[in-house]
């Protein structure tokens, strides 16, 4: 992973709105590389961090991302990020018939670069990061209660602004 931000976030302090989004390359469930910088100048990006595949809230949320995929994908490239392996992602994607990409951050480098790491549990926070076409962080929302789903209407309203 290449850090491109002048002042990177601490691993537990969410990245600031207006910051240059740290570029990264992560494999998805099909082991295809997702390179953030490939979207710069072309398309906004919506990154949905979630703690773990197979957990109840994460399963419900990712089912919603799939059923509402066009609701989000019309505004941005959509990807979900967790610390799970590509193998776990693949099995979960097939079981749940998920349409969106599941990015594997097993080494936690990207999660830490975006300040979304929960060291006590060794997982990410439940968070949404929207990145505009210029590669800047446009909106960040961390769920204060990791067991609660995010507000999809709020996300869509923020995406419309990009």
What do these coordinates show?
By secondary structure, the protein is α/β, with parallel strands linked by helices. The protein has a single domain (25-160), classed as Glutaredoxin, CATH 3.40.30.10. Helices cover 26% and strands 23% of the residues. The chain is built from five helices and nine strands, in the order βββααβαβαββββα. It has helices at 56-67, 69-73, 86-96, 109-113, 152-160; strands spanning 25-27, 33-35, 44-49, 76-82, 101-104, 117-118, 123-124, 127-131, 137-142. The strands form three sheets. A five-stranded mixed sheet has the order 5-4-3-8-9. A two-stranded antiparallel ribbon has the order 1-2. A two-stranded antiparallel ribbon has the order 6-7. Strand 8 (127-131) and strand 9 form a beta hairpin. The longest helix is centred in the middle third of the chain and has 12 residues, at 56-67. The radius of gyration is 14 Å and the shape is globular. The relative contact order is 0.24. Residues 1-8 have low confidence and may be disordered.
What is the topology, as strand order, of the major beta sheet?
5-4-3-8-9
CATH architecture classification name: 3-Layer(aba) Sandwich
Oligomer: single chain
Radius of gyration: 14 Å
Number of helical elements: 5
Low-confidence residue ranges: 1-8
Q: Which CATH class?
A: Alpha Beta
> By helix and strand content, what is the structural category?
alpha/beta
SSE topology string: EEEHHEHEHEEEEH
Silhouette: globular
CA(first)-CA(last) distance: 25 Å
Please tally the β strands and state the result: 9
Helix proportion of residues, in percent?
Answer: 25-40%
Tell me, rounded to a whole number, the average pLDDT: 91
Portion in strands:
15-25%
Main beta-sheet annotation: 5 strands, mixed
CATH topology: Glutaredoxin
Integer count of domains: 1
CATH superfamily: Glutaredoxin
């Amino acid at each position: 992973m290449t850090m491109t931000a002048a002042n990177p976030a601490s691993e537990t302090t969410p990245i600031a709105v207006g910051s240059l989004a740290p570029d990264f390359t992560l494999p998805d469930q099909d082991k295809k590389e997702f390179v953030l910088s490939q979207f710069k100048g072309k398309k906004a990006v919506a990154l949905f961090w979630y703690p773990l595949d197979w957990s109840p809230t994460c399963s419900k949320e990712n089912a919603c991302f799939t059923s509402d995929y066009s609701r989000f994908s019309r505004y941005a490239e959509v990807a979900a990020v967790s610390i799970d392996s590509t193998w776990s992602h693949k099995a979960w994607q097939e079981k749940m018939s998920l349409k969106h990409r599941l990015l594997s951050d097993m080494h936690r480098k990207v999660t830490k670069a975006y300040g979304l790491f929960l060291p006590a549990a060794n997982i990410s926070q439940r968070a949404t990061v929207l990145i505009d076409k210029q590669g800047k962080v446009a909106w960040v929302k961390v769920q204060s209660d990791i067991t609660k789903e995010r507000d999809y209407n709020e996300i869509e309203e923020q995406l419309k602004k990009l």
